[in-house]
């Protein structure tokens, strides 16, 4: 069986249980672009027919941009930003999200200045994360508080969450 056929079998196995939520972890990473497109069309049909909600876990930002309505960006296993697709791609709040997007090849003019997004060094060990923000050692905007206090995931605009001390303001509220 091809990779696409195996994915279809796995989808059928999952749908037999009539779930309302389907978690797809790098589901399309092993298939070619034509097969990816076919599978995404199948997912859309199944979503309409069965009222499914999908949770995609992926490193493929082009696919994420195409199919997701809300995106959660994670760094070292923690959410650092949650926003709708437009907010994530056109107005990212967290420095890691900007760095991630600055590395994606695009035909559009890149709105991110390399000197503001370039990441130096290695990420900390996920086994021994230092105190404070896990991104502080690589963030070009980190300041003293970042190395001491872990930022909370907070709503900084309606429906937009980010875990970054740079966004702290009086009106910011802690996310539920």
Brief account:
The chain has 176 residues and is an alpha+beta fold. The protein is 32% helix and 18% strand. The protein contains six helices and seven strands; from the N terminus they run H-E-H-E-H-E-E-H-H-H-E-E-E.
Write up this protein:
With 176 residues, this protein is α+β, with helices and mostly antiparallel strands. It has two domains: 1-68, no CATH class; 71-175, no CATH class. The protein has six helices and seven strands, in the order H-E-H-E-H-E-E-H-H-H-E-E-E. It has helices at residues 3-15, 33-50, 61-67, 85-90, 95-102, 114-117; strands at 21-25, 53-57, 70-75, 78-84, 154-157, 160-162, 173-174. The strands form two sheets. It has a five-stranded antiparallel sheet. Strand 5 and strand 6 form a beta hairpin. The longest helix has 18 residues, at 33-50. The chain is elongated, with a radius of gyration of 18 Å. The relative contact order is 0.11. The mean pLDDT is 86.
């Amino acid at each position: 069986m091809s990779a696409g056929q195996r994915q279809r079998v796995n989808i059928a196995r999952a749908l037999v249980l009539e779930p309302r939520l389907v978690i797809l972890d790098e589901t399309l990473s092993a298939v070619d672009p034509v097969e990816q497109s076919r599978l995404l069309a199948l997912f859309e049909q199944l979503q309409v027919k069965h009222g499914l909600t999908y949770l995609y876990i992926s490193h493929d930002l082009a696919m994420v941009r195409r199919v997701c309505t809300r995106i959660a960006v994670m760094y070292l296993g923690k959410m650092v930003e949650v926003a709708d697709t437009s907010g994530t791609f056109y107005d990212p709040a967290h420095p890691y999200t900007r760095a991630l997007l600055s590395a994606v090849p695009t035909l559009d003019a890149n709105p991110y200045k390399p000197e503001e997004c370039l990441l130096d060094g290695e990420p900390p060990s996920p086994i021994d994360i230092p105190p404070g923000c896990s991104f502080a050692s690589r963030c070009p905007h980190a300041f003293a508080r970042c190395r001491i206090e872990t930022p909370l995931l907070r709503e900084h605009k309606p429906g937009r969450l980010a875990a970054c001390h740079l966004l702290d303001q009086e009106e910011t509220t802690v996310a539920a």
